[in-house]
Design brief:
Elements: H1 2-17, H2 30-39, E1 42-45, H3 49-62, E2 67-72, E3 75-80, E4 83-88, E5 90-93
Antiparallel strand pairs: 1-5, 2-3, 3-4
Region (SAW): 17-92
Pfam families: GRAS
Organism: Quercus suber (Cork oak)
Length: 95
């Protein structure tokens, strides 16, 4: 729970509740990041489906109903009430 209160909480608050000058960070969309990483010479690796299933099961049993985990474009999306807060993906250099 330390991670949620010290890292996820403040970052989620920034994305969900802050607008205009109150916003601390202005994160780019995951689609923008994917394009930049590909242009930098990396290749995306698929998500491990066992990991996805475990994450979804833990979410359902331990967290608020409005917190969601989903998958899109080989990325794990963590969100709150339909807004993405964190995106996790795996990459390797495309040699």
């Amino acid at each position: 729970m330390f991670l949620e209160s010290e890292s996820y909480g403040p970052q989620a608050m920034n994305v969900i509740a802050c607008e205009g000058s109150e916003r601390i960070e202005r994160p780019e969309t995951n689609k923008q990041w994917l394009l930049q990483i590909v242009r930098a010479g990396f290749r995306q690796l698929p998500l491990n489906q066992e990991m996805m299933n475990t994450a979804k099961d833990r979410l359902k049993s331990r967290y608020h109903k409005d917190f969601v985990i989903d998958e899109d474009s080989q990325c794990l999306l963590q969100g709150w009430k339909g807004r993405n807060i964190f995106v996790l993906s795996f990459w390797r250099p495309d040699c």
